[in-house]
Design a protein that fits this description.
It is built from 16 helices and twelve strands. It is of the alpha+beta class. The protein has two domains: about 200 residues, 2-Layer Sandwich (Cytochrome Bc1 Complex, Chain A, domain 1), CATH 3.30.830; about 200 residues, 2-Layer Sandwich (Cytochrome Bc1 Complex, Chain A, domain 1).
Length: about 450
């Protein structure tokens, strides 16, 4: 009989590469990570403007900006940008998120200069072609219509609205908001926020610090600095008592259940403890939610929880798609598992397994220049300590059973929890009154009497 090899409990050593840094005359922070083994250079621009900055009533503005920014500049057509990037064996893309805007460029080492020149051109001189704007708006409108058939989309849209209102995290794109956006709206957002003194540039790969800084100065020091707008955002006002928000999908054979609380922001000192707690509760097929709701009860194919943290706030959420006839029992099962996390410390074995997984997978997920550049960018944008990534695994390893229980007691607040269910209201509404007042909405988020 073969014996299993012993499991090594020694903490994996993760050393974050040296990040050298300088600030250009226009306020652009440049960070360089030398990784000469891979013959590529990675550019990652992070800008402190997110979808939360969309003008009210024009939600979708930054999303459209991210799609259009590479569709042509004052010097290059969209076709020319695509051809030149392809010729250099490169990639160029942009994306918007709740808090930040990112532009990514990746090029073969010998085209490092030409690649950064295109990145700079796209950042500084986009023209936002009107015909491309109409194309992208049409796609978004079609996507919004299609998403009405997605229970997960409907649940998340309502969940964010309920938890974060009146903070901008609660807002979302609608056909009306997209139709209100014109080229001037996008240009004004670019002029206001896409500025060097609001941005970070990470350069990683086969390049020296001296060369990287020289390239940044050559192509980006002409990027004009401007005063940044000062803005304040209101605090979220989640339900003070547990309420069920039911989105009616007649004849649906399943119910999509999503529930949770407002949480802290990414910089909060409880973050690592909450990550461990979440791993034990619902962070995968070994989590308590999965084992109870699927393996023991057979209500669902999978049940999970997650920690979502942003610049301003965050959310704990748990979710599952269950058979319509067990909607109440499954919702009860979530609260039962939350209660168990609060009332008793987790076992030493569960704690050890969760920490071992989190510590083991982290270095594997962050061994490429692109992923290292992403971590360096996160550290800056979320204002984390300079040595944060070198201390991250130690912080995970230091979490105790008492920490996990305290996190559950502090943040899994049953009576203030938003409960969102997407399903057949006629079949499940009455049973959901066990969890609080039930408010019914249609797939367009309109209240139903």
């Amino acid at each position: 009989m073969k014996q299993k090899p012993p499991i090594d409990d020694k903490l994996i050593e993760f050393r974050f590469p040296t990040v050298q840094e300088t600030v250009l005359k226009n306020g652009l922070t440049v960070m360089v990570i030398e990784q000469p083994k891979i013959p590529k250079v990675y550019y990652r621009v992070g800008i402190q403007v997110g979808e939360k900055h969309d003008p009210p009533g024009k939600e979708g503005t930054l999303d459209l900006l991210s799609l259009l920014i590479k569709k042509g500049t004052q010097r290059r057509s969209y076709e020319e940008i695509v051809e030149q990037v392809d010729f250099m064996g490169g990639e160029l893309d942009a994306v918007s998120r709740r808090d930040f805007f990112y532009l990514f460029g990746e090029f073969l080492q010998e085209y490092a200069a030409q690649g950064l020149e295109i990145v700079a051109d796209v950042l500084m001189n986009p023209v936002f072609p009107p015909e491309e704007l109409e194309k992208e708006k049409a796609k978004m409108l079609a996507d919004l219509e299609n998403e009405k058939s997605s229970p997960a989309f409907l649940a998340n849209r309502k969940f964010n609205e309920v938890l974060f209102q009146p903070h901008p995290y609660a807002r979302y794109k609608t056909p009306e908001s997209l139709q209100a956006i014109d080229r001037q709206t996008i240009q004004e957002m670019h002029d206001r926020y896409i500025r060097p003194n609001n941005s970070y540039l990470v350069i990683a790969g086969a390049v020296t610090f001296e060369t990287a800084v020289q390239l940044a100065r050559e192509y980006l020091e002409g990027w004009e600095q401007k005063p940044l707008p000062t803005e304040t955002t209101p605090e979220p006002q989640p339900p003070k008592r547990r309420t069920v928000f039911l989105i009616d999908r007649p004849d649906s054979e399943q119910s999509n259940i999503l529930l949770g609380n407002v949480l802290f922001n990414r910089k909060h000192p409880d973050y690592e403890k909450a990550v461990v707690m979440n791993k034990i509760l619902g962070g995968g097929a070994s989590g308590r939610l999965f084992m109870y709701l699927r393996e023991e009860k057979g209500y669902t194919y999978g049940a999970y929880s997650s920690i979502r943290t942003y610049k301003d706030h965050g959310a704990f959420s748990a979710n599952a798609e269950v058979r319509t006839e067990v909607t109440r029992e499954a919702t009860d099962g979530f609260f039962e598992q939350f209660r168990a996390m609060r009332e008793a410390p987790v076992s030493e074995e569960d704690l050890k397994n969760a920490k071992r997984y989190l510590i083991g997978v982290f270095p594997l997920q962050n061994e490429t220049p692109s992923s290292i550049a992403s971590l360096a960018m996160q550290q800056k944008l979320y204002d984390l300590p300079d040595d944060y990534w070198n201390q991250y695994l130690k912080a995970i390893d230091a979490v105790t059973r008492e920490d996990v229980q305290n996190i559950a007691r502090t943040y899994l607040r049953d009576e203030e929890m938003a409960v969102v269910v997407v399903g057949d209201a006629e079949k499940i509404k009455d049973s959901l009154t066990a969890f609080g007042p039930v408010k019914v909405f249609d797939v367009d988020n309109n209240p139903v009497e």
